[in-house]
Amino acid sequence: MDGIVPPVRPTSRPGLLVAVEATISDLLVAARAGQWTRRSLMASSFTGEAVTRRMFKKVQESFEDSQFIETIPGHYERGGLVASGRQTLFRPTVALLELAASYGVTLDTLPEHFSIERPVPPPSTDLLVLRASKPLKVDGRRRAAAELSIAPNDPGALRLVEELEGINAFLSSIPIEGFAFSGLRRIFNNGDQPEFAWQRGGRFYSLPGGDDYMRWKGGKAARADAIRLQGEKVGEVDLSASHLTVLYGLLGEAFDHTADPYAIPGQARTKVKRWLTYALGTGTTEPREGNWYVKVREAVLECHPVLQRLHEHQVSTLDLQFHEAEVIAWAMRDLRELDDVASLPVFDSLVVPLSKVELARERLRDAFTRHFAALRPGGPLIVPRVH
User: Fold this and answer.
1) Spatial distance between the Cα atoms of 61 and 64, rounded to a whole number of angstroms
2) pLDDT exceeds 70 at position 81
3) Most buried pick, 65, 149, 328, 338, via CB within 10 A?
4) Contact 345, 328 (CB under 8 A)
5) In whole angstroms, what is the distance from residue 204 CA to residue 185 CA?
6) What own/partner pairs with CB < 8 Å and gap ≥ 24 does 115-118 have?
7) Predicted local confidence at residue 138, as pLDDT
8) pLDDT tens per residue, range 135-188
9) Has residue 211 got a pLDDT over 80?
10) In this prediction, what percent of the chain has a pLDDT beyond 70?
11) For residue 38, what are the β-bridge partners?
12) Global pTM value
């Protein structure tokens, strides 16, 4: 490797030098592609490899002691319907890049010293996931619904893939710091229903291999603390009472965006929000005797009579999610194409550079209004409450 050997603990084992060379190669090749290096540190992941887990840990510790690498620890969690996790992430610091340059190895000249082939990115079909309508049961436990195949010439799928490719290409071209970003995909539901036309679900999620920043513990505060977009700290703008506001738009009812939809006289705001989440999530406002929310339900239905038509029009949470995601996509497109501003979706909100928060509010508000104006020409102007 042209003499680049950062200090490691003395050893007579040549395998450790192999581990050093392999580590430097992986770090520099990934850095050249603007990526982090990923590595599982589970003992089983080293089975059959030339570099043992013990060797790798020695190299990792030496590089960290020398401040040659940044590390984001991996984790593994089991909860809800699926297990999730992230491999440990590494990338070289300026100190390692300068050391390499002192031996004539720069990111520009890397092909002269190492193979720079990276794993092939996921095929475009991975940008869309289509699931069946009923969850699976495995060993008596509920799992996510089965994934369905997507016809290669499906016009709706092709349009969505083209949009996602544009989003991911732009986000891959700008600095994103604080987590490993692998791109975005959309997950649609009820693909096995006869009326399906890419209008159920459709929320944005991180592609496998990247950090699931949308579900970080600590939520908005954790993202604000860790993420940097286009060299800036970030802020988050969101659609207040998103699904309720979408319902107003779908049913063509005028909406007062100046009032807090959860603020109902005589009722605790937390209870109103909780009941609305339940009603919109289950698609029904039917009473359930003996529950704490009987009076809350009556007050909410009086304040928001549009909810009384929820069951009549068979509006489900997947319908609400779809329109919410379409609004988010529209706002992201406007920010990208009109303002050259990066944004990251978090269900009903957008993470943007801190200096662009007010602009993002305007774009999100405008996207919502235009989406429902196109859906219901001549209907009332629906202006959402945006924070």
Assistant:
1) 5
2) no
3) 328
4) yes
5) 6
6) 115/25, 115/29, 116/29, 116/32, 116/33, 118/29, 118/30, 118/33, 118/35
7) 62
8) 866 666 777 788 999 988 899 999 999 999 999 999 988 889 888 888 999 999
9) yes
10) 86
11) 89
12) 0.71
How far, in Å, CA of 96 to CA of 181, rounded?
A: 22
Take residue 56 and report the two structure tokens written for it.
Answer: 């790798």
- Position 137 scores a pLDDT of 64
Give the CA distances from residue 34 to residues 13, 39, 153, 181, 202, in Å, rounded to whole numbers and listed in that order: 33, 16, 32, 10, 28
Question: At 29, is the pLDDT very low, low, confident or very high (cuts 50, 70, 90)?
Answer: confident
